[in-house]
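Running this now, will post back.
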Amino acid sequence: MTIFKDPIIKTLQILFYLFPLSFAFGNLVINSMVFFIVVIGTIYFRKNLFDIQNKYFFSILISFFFIVLISSYYNYFFFDTNKDSVKSLLYFRFLFLIFIVRALVINNFINLNYFLNICFLMSLFISLDIIVQFLIGKNISGNDPLEFAMGVKYYTGIFGKELIAGGFISMFSIIGIFAIFNLFKIKSKIINLSLFFLLIMIFLASIILSGNRMPLIMFFCFLLLLSLIYKNKEKFYFFSFAFIAFVLLSFTILNSEILLKRIGSFKVGIPNPTIIVEELKKTYPNLKKYENSGIPFHSLKEFKTTENYKYYPFFTGHLPIYITSIDLFLDKPFIGGGIKSFRNNCNNIIHLPNRVCENHPHNFILEILNDTGIIGLTLIISFVFYLLINNYRDYKFNKPEKLKISNWVYLAIILSVLIYFFPLKSSGSFFSTFNSSFISLILGISLGLNDLKYKKRVE
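Update: finished.
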């Protein structure tokens, strides 16, 4: 049996190290990687896969996945409103992915420094590719930048016509940037910090050129959080880097008409909570007859005669999306409408003013509330909060190096989880293949780091 097991572990290691690369090739490749990791990992670990010390903590995570399942099928059978209920079953693959990654970590089958190295090289390559595209007009594969009205250009690099380069760089550079401290083995603190600052500038420049504004804000949040939670005296340098980067970026924006327009359009598009609350309080009895019709308000004959109606400019579209999302949540506040319910249920209320239909609410918190209600949100936030607190305690007080895990690995995972679950971030769909795979990856590593100390105590 030992002869059979070694190739399985080797295969799992290769799949794990290649997993970050799959995010650059789209959902088909990501799903394939998840499938093979889950199948092979389940075969190898079998009943030991869910062997976890903290049973209460384990039950919280399991309960979240079952709430997704229960909510989806409850709405399907009793209201016939969730056409994607089968996806709640398929979503369980990410539960298995979390625990397989955890098992790889606690059994020391993977080197997390290698993982950081891969994230670093990948994010650096894509960043430099975007900078090359900016300097010479084409990236290394010959792609031109995307050009929109008024000469606004988005430098997307290898992603072609998809505007995701900034989010991708932000996502993996937050993890990968810490690889330099283990990758280059430079003893000089000044050289290490200088190299760190140079990389910050490269990643920032590429995110700016990509045109993705929220990843830029999240990268600054990352720098500030790093300076706050770093436990050694060098935190002053990290805070200084964040300040210098902010000053340089502000100077660049103020001297660029295009960047000023982008920032301006982003600022006016930020949803005003007061407007959202006021709009949700309004009632439109004259529009009741159009409920569930799927007819947008602007197409109704009452469009110009409806009282209390106030038109708000669309801008980025987040204001009507958030109004619609909260309205739907209030309709089913406890267990939500089931997985991916927003795109199924938004048609029921677009006869009301300032409502809109999209595939998802563009915010993780609102989407979880929509799909799983207060119960689901409480479960997943409790799980994430518990992991963050425990990982931070291990990083600050328990000397991770005794577990043969670099302090930089702890910092990378803690900060990645914090940024990815930042509540005010406008984002893609929480339940999409792309985001669910990445979330499962970092939560699996985080859970493994948390449980590693229990394994050492037993041994």
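Residues 337 and 371 are 5 Å apart (CA to CA). More later if anyone needs it.
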